[in-house]
């Protein structure tokens, strides 16, 4: 799959764009939406928190940094890790996507390895040659508890001496009456930017049925084929697949949806 050509003079032209990124992390994306003429609506599907036992987690992270391979599962994993210890390592470092790779470069990892641009997710990362044969290698998996566990399962099956370090926690968001009222007025022309199945599940569980129904009437812009299936099963009928979870790719897909 090739990356789509950049858009020329494309705008959102007053369209509402629902941003489901974790609470406190959506400001830059909202600014991009406004710059394109859209109206951002912040609807966090997750909240991110630090770990309870920082001292023990710092020791675990420092141990992982001495290993052979390090895998960072998200930009948040990088952000919370550097709050615990400098990312000084001789290990081979991999990132699950371009956003995570950029975060790593900002914190001193000069050349993190990434999946191909056509599949910026765990499945894509597992195709990287650096993860093909892990027999006897010390592999640090840096992220949060929960999730699908695909990386954990596959790397363990490939013989890795796996050391998981949970440097942050994902928790359900706090949604209040303002969020619900905004959704009850949501036009069907809105776009929902979605890059997390967990965020979608949280919203489904926590929103009143009427608000959820209005959200499902919007067009879901998803970052992977797996998310497209989950969105369809959750009640969305109009779904657009973006090239990746990067903001530029999600917004390109939102504008191309017409």
How would you summarize the topology of this molecule?
Elements: E1 16-19, H1 27-35, E2 39-42, E3 47-50, H2 54-64, E4 69-72, H3 75-84, E5 92-95, H4 98-106, H5 122-126, E6 138-144, H6 150-157, E7 161-171, H7 177-184, E8 191-194, H8 197-206, H9 209-216, E9 219-222, H10 225-234, E10 239-241, H11 247-256
Parallel strand pairs: 1-2, 1-8, 4-5, 4-6, 6-7, 8-9, 9-10
Antiparallel strand pairs: 3-7
Could you explain how this protein is built, in words?
38% of the residues lie in helices and 19% in strands. The protein has 258 residues and is an alpha/beta fold. A 5-stranded parallel sheet has the order 2-1-8-9-10, with helices on both faces. Strands 3-7-6-4-5 form a 5-stranded mixed sheet. Helix 10 links the parallel strand 9 (219-222) and strand 10. Helix 8 (197-206) runs parallel beside helix 10 (225-234). The longest helix has 11 residues, at 54-64. The radius of gyration is 19 Å and the shape is elongated. Residues 1-9 have low confidence and may be disordered.
């Amino acid at each position: 799959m090739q990356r789509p050509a950049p858009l020329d003079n494309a705008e959102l032209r007053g369209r509402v764009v629902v941003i489901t990124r974790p609470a406190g992390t959506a400001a830059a994306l909202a600014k991009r939406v406004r710059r394109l003429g859209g109206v951002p609506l912040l609807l966090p599907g997750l909240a991110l928190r630090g770990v309870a036992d920082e001292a023990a987690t710092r020791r675990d992270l420092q141990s992982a940094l001495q290993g052979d391979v390090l895998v960072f599962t998200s930009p948040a994993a990088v952000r919370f890790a550097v709050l615990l210890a400098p990312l000084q390592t001789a290990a081979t470092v991999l990132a699950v996507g371009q956003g995570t790779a950029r975060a790593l470069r900002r914190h001193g990892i000069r050349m993190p390895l990434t999946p191909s641009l056509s599949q910026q997710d765990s499945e894509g990362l597992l195709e990287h040659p650096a993860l093909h044969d892990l027999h006897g290698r010390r592999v640090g998996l840096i992220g949060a508890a929960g999730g699908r566990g695909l990386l954990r399962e596959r790397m363990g099956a490939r013989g890795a001496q796996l050391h998981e370090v949970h440097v942050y926690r994902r928790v359900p968001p706090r949604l209040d009456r303002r969020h619900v009222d905004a959704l009850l007025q949501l036009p069907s022309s809105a776009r929902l930017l979605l890059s997390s199945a967990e965020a979608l599940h949280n919203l489904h569980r926590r929103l009143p049925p009427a608000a959820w129904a209005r959200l499902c009437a919007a067009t879901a812009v998803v970052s992977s084929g797996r998310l497209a299936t989950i969105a369809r099963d959750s009640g969305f009928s109009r779904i657009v697949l973006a090239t990746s979870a990067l903001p530029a790719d999600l917004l390109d897909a939102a504008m191309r949806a017409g």
